[in-house]
Amino acid sequence: MSKTIQFSSAQTFSLVLLRILIGWHFLYEGVIKVYSPSWSAKGYLLSATYMESFFRWLASESMISIVDTLNIGALLLIGFGLIVGFKSRWASILGIALLLLYYLAHPAFPGYPQGPSEGSYWIVNKNLIEAAALLVLYLFPTETSYGLERLFSKSQQVTPNP
């Protein structure tokens, strides 16, 4: 038996808008890294203030090219999936994992130096907020209502209420 989730038009619009905006952020970050041949995550990883040995291992000569490629690929896939509404639940999970890695490299924990950021944070920073927003998108999917997934899904559809 299929389960139908009922959202109002405003709720659906808000969730789709959130999905597209976060998708744009991920896609843009991936594209900008593709077109910046000198970009590498090495500096960010080497400056990690938490779990330093893990992030230094990721920044090692034997790992950094793999890490850079996976990072760019993940950013592009997450962004594309969220924008077009295809496999956006998978994209949300992958995005949460990636953002938590970014967060753990430079957490906003009391007593730890602030990493590269645009402000001063205490426990909560932009990476954690965006990860929480992706959790909302995972729990309240909209791709079967507005997205490419609609073409492939017949079981669970999100329909807006008037």
Q: How would you summarize what this structure contains?
A:
It holds the Pfam family DoxX. The protein is mainly α.
Whole-number total of structural domains? 1
Computed Rg: 18 Å
Low-confidence stretches: none
The number of distinct β-strands equals 2
* Whole-number mean pLDDT: 87
Distance N to C terminus: 24 Å
**Biggest sheet overview:** 2 strands, parallel
- Give the count of helical stretches: 6
Quickly give the structural class.
Answer: mainly alpha
Question: Which series of helices and strands comes N to C?
Answer: EHHHHHHE
Main attributes of the structure:
162 residues; transmembrane helix; 2 strands; mainly alpha; 6 helices; transmembrane; two-stranded parallel ribbon
What does this structure look like?
This protein has one domain. By secondary structure, the protein is mainly alpha-helical. The chain has 6 helices and 2 strands, in the order E-H-H-H-H-H-H-E.
Record the SSE blueprint.
Layout: E1 5-8, H1 9-34, H2 42-46, H3 52-58, H4 64-84, H5 88-105, H6 126-139, E2 158-161
Parallel strand pairs: 1-2
Helix pairs in contact: 1-4, 1-6, 4-5, 5-6
Main location: membrane
Keywords: Membrane, Transmembrane, Transmembrane helix
Subcellular location: Membrane
